[in-house]
Write a structure and sequence with these properties.
Blueprint (H helix, E strand, L loop, with lengths): L1 H7 L17 E3 L5 E3 H8 L4 E3 L6 E3 L12 H14 L4 H6 L8 E3 L4 E3 L1 H7 L10 E3 L5 H11 L14 E3 L4 E3 L1 H6 L6 E3 H111 L2 H20 L36 E6 L26 E6 L5 E5 L4 E5 L5 E6 L4 E6 L5 E5 L4 E5 L5 E6 L6 E6 L4 E5 L4 E5 L5 E6 L9 E5 L5 E5 L4 E5 L5 E5 L15 E6 L5 E5 L4 E5 L5 E6 L10 E6 L4 E6 L3 E6 L3
Antiparallel strand pairs: 1-2, 3-4, 5-6, 5-7, 8-9, 8-10, 11-34, 12-13, 13-14, 14-15, 16-17, 17-18, 18-19, 20-21, 21-22, 22-23, 24-25, 25-26, 26-27, 28-29, 29-30, 30-31, 32-33, 33-34
Length: 641
Amino acid sequence: MATSLTEQIPNKFLQCCICSDDLKTPKMLRCLHSFCRDCLVKCKGSSENLACTVCHLGTNLPPEGVDGLLTNVFLENLVDIVGSKANKNCSICQQLYDKQVESTSLCVQCQNILCAECSACHNRTKFTLTHKVIPLGQLSDAEVLEKMRSAQKVKCPQHPDEVIKYFCKSCKKVACRDCAILGHRSHDLTGLKDAGNDAKSELKTHIAKLKTVSGDYDKNVEEINGRKKMSDERHQNLKQKINTWADKVCKKIKEHEESLIKTLQSSVQKETKQTLAIRDKTELCLGTTQSTHDFGDNTLRCGHDAEVLFLQSQMDEKMSEIEKEPIEPPFKTQTQIQLQKEAVDLNAERLAFFECSVITPVTVFKTRSEDDGPDSKPFLFLEELFLNLNYRVTDISVLHNGDIVIASWDKERLKLFDKQGKLKWAVGVDDYPWNVAVTPDDEIMVTSGRTPHIDVFDGRGHKVRKIPTIVSSLCIGLAVDRDRIVIVDGANKCIHILDHTGKTMKVIKNEHFTQHCFCYAACSGNGDIIISADDTHCVFIYTKTGELLTTYGTPRTRGDGPGRLNWPCGVCTDSYNNIIIADRDNRRVHLVSPQGQFISFILTPDDFQDGEKPRSVALTSEGHLVVVIFNGVVKVLKYTK
């Protein structure tokens, strides 16, 4: 048994993790870890809470401090057994005479290792006459430990001279004889063996459960480690891509720098050559003029009248020659070398912006017909979305609480869903609704394709007012901010800027609009106005005052790729005034800077199911991008720009 005991109990199990020595008066913390009593006193300091040095779980100390903690008698007895096995000196001589005398035998009852003299005396005293003393030479270490362990008793902490003999079922505590008489007289007492069997059975159940729980935690740790490994590899791969991209960009910039320097040197050489030629000619003229001046001056000061008259014709001829040569600025057209901004095409080498961001599906649902009750569960899985819906969703907007409002041609309905896709209400409108916009006060404005007014609803679906306009019956394209309402009048090829009463503040002409073009509008945080017109294949960006800032896409020219559109639809802006465009027939969603420069594709054809085309887009206050598809599917994505 002793051999198996030493094999089953690791050396560190009996060592204090603070002092790394055998446990001495081991005190147990709330986490079941035990430490030397003196070590805990040193660690405690003035604090009333002890943090375990192994698991860092805190234990509130009782009023008695460390001494009030439970003594781990199990570990204390194990330390005594293993320690006595290692001590081969007589315990009696060591205790009474402080002598180191080699032991020869073992008293099973006293658990003392004795020398020859003490062993002889041990069997002659009245109190130890019946004790069994066994020579060590006749016993293996395993037998010594087995007999010592079987004879080992647990002392009562309240009555040190008594051993634990009973278990009180009423108090759930162990008791010695004195404890049973003084404190448990009328309680339900039982022997240690019966109570121990019950406790061991319960402990086996706990161990089995702990084994299962530990297995689950092991699986979780393994999964976490695997995921961390994958994450590290993915991050390393992204880092490598970024480094590669940066190297290519730097290479492009370096090549462009060298090209600019080469062009600059060529220009400088040409200009220098021209300048030197002009200087040589000018210096020649200057020399001729000065020599003529000196000659004439000397003649005037020193010449006789006859000499002056004799040279007069030559002087007149030379002056006539000098005067015929016009004196002009050295550079009729001044050459200037300037550094101009030039866009370097890096699209073929660029790393897509969103490779270093996260676009995560939050929820996906279909806009149900009115026969589906508001308690219907939202569709959360892509494979369940493609149902035979016989209506179209034309536009989408978002309230400040995250609710999503859509304009649908399904029985001319305006519908409101919560952020999980649960239908809250559906109301009818006067005609086919086309555009929907939400005011800063969470009122819902709706335009129709055949009515020249704007219907206004509150957040509960009640119509609160109607705003008349002077636009034609084809009233499509709607955006609203704190001070303005923007409406596109395709038939008259213009954009109307209205106040919130419907009064016209400004009219912006756009000759690219057609009578039947379907438009979408948005107002950015800096006041810019963004208009998407589908059959122009272009998005127009206007300043707050109505001047055309730029276009994204080429008017009347459809295309694919960065900066090209094919029947664009819904538009919205983010907090940085970047523009998000639903590129319908290219099945993409573009991210564009406020100046109309391509940044990245947010969604590509790979992100859509077969037949899906983005119709409209909106951003929630939580940073979610809402994309509505032609077939009535709404996708909500995490947008991290």
